[in-house]
Write a structure and sequence with these properties.
two-stranded antiparallel sheet, mainly beta, 93 residues, single chain
């Protein structure tokens, strides 16, 4: 395709599309910034880590943030995140 006025080729630049498949989201349900807790511990090993089940899937949340829980990814936590300063061990883990 060329420009009718000047006869130069027209180039159209497009924004790259998001890849389809798994959703990209940020887990923001932490009680404090991850990484401030004991070395080598993760959210998975914390007593405050709760699994909330819906539609046959588990969504992990921090019990300390319960008043702010939503039914979306925004209040989830990642189990592999380093422990925060509120980390507490439990006897059964």
């Amino acid at each position: 395709m060329s420009d009718h006025l000047f006869g130069e080729p027209i180039t159209i630049e497009r924004e790259p599309e998001e890849p389809r498949g798994r959703r990209r989201y940020t887990a923001n349900g932490y009680a404090a910034r991850p990484g401030g807790g004991p070395e080598g511990e993760t959210c998975k090993s914390c007593a405050h880590c709760i699994a909330k089940y819906w539609d046959g899937r588990a969504f992990y949340k921090c019990e300390l943030m319960r008043p702010l829980w939503t039914n979306s990814y925004g209040s989830d936590i990642r189990l592999k995140s380093p422990a925060c300063r509120h980390w507490e061990g439990s006897a059964d883990r």
